[in-house]
Amino acid sequence: MDSSVSLVTDVNSRSICVLSTPDSQTVAQGHADFLKAPLNPTHPDDYFFKLYVEGDRLFVKDAENRKLEIDFDENHLDYQRKGHRGKNELISKALGVAKGSKNILDLSVGMGIDSVFLTQLGFSVIGVERSPLLYLLLKEAFAKTQKPELQNYRLYFSDALKFLKDNKNKIVVDAIYFDPMYPHKKKSALPKQEMVVFRDLVGHDDDAAEVLKEALTWPVQRVVVKRPLLAPELMPGVRHAYEGKVVRYDTYVVG
Predict the structure, then answer these.
(1) Which residues on neighbouring strands pair with residue 49, listed in sequence order?
(2) 179 labelled as ligand-binding?
(3) 214 labeled part of a ligand binding site
(4) Angle 43-63-145 from CA coordinates, rounded to 5°
(5) In percent, how much of the chain has pLDDT > 70?
């Protein structure tokens, strides 16, 4: 994994602290330095997010004590999907598996669910995550996983737009995958605790159209945007739309 890309470590202007057990002080200090956050402050409840470092475990809790932890092997977030259809999966078709697409750039890794699934489908994936807390959780999960298909995953910490501008013609991929956060309806059902924390961490992708516009300038075969089934296109120009029951994959053919 490569974390050489850097940017300002801000989490939607929310306050963060790092809490550790005595045997984890050295590792915790590294995380605190990365986040520019205090380690074991006197009043931890003054902070909205708390990053806990306890032995080989790393997890986040918010002010409501909701927890987010990423573990690809434990699988409680469906990181090991059984019975998938391989190249017949909609996401595989959208990314151009039939056209020889193999190497994918995932611009919004999030909790890694789609990225990990892509590796199960045989794709080689490079991932970008802009949230510093999510990046740390992902980095830890990739370091601990025993899944062979994830051993060569390359994870970068960066804003998607900045990454695209800084790395054009430097990184070779066949297709780009983008799953921007979509504003949820006010009447939608409250999701489980992980999703609540996740949404607070990443916020909305207000620059999603700008990111897509930049992605379309890369020398790739296609750019795929994941959308809620009934949501409008992020930008005009969708060549193919692969529709599932609740989401669809809008494909923009580039080359």
Answers:
(1) 16
(2) yes
(3) no
(4) 100
(5) 82
Return the domain boundaries, the chain.
16-68, 86-192+202-253
Alpha-carbon distance of 226 to 31, in angstroms, equals 31
pLDDT tens, position by position, 35-72: 999 999 999 999 999 999 999 899 999 988 989 999 99
Yes or no: is domain 16-68 CATH 3.40.50.150?
A: no
Phi, psi at residue 17, to the nearest 5°?
-135, 165
Domain 86-192+202-253 CATH assignment equals 3.30.1490.20: no
Q: What would the pLDDT profile of 150-168 be if each residue is shown by its tens digit?
A: 988 999 999 999 999 999 9
Q: Residue 240 — φ and ψ, nearest 5°?
A: -135, 145
- Written as six digits, the tokens of 240 are 């193919």
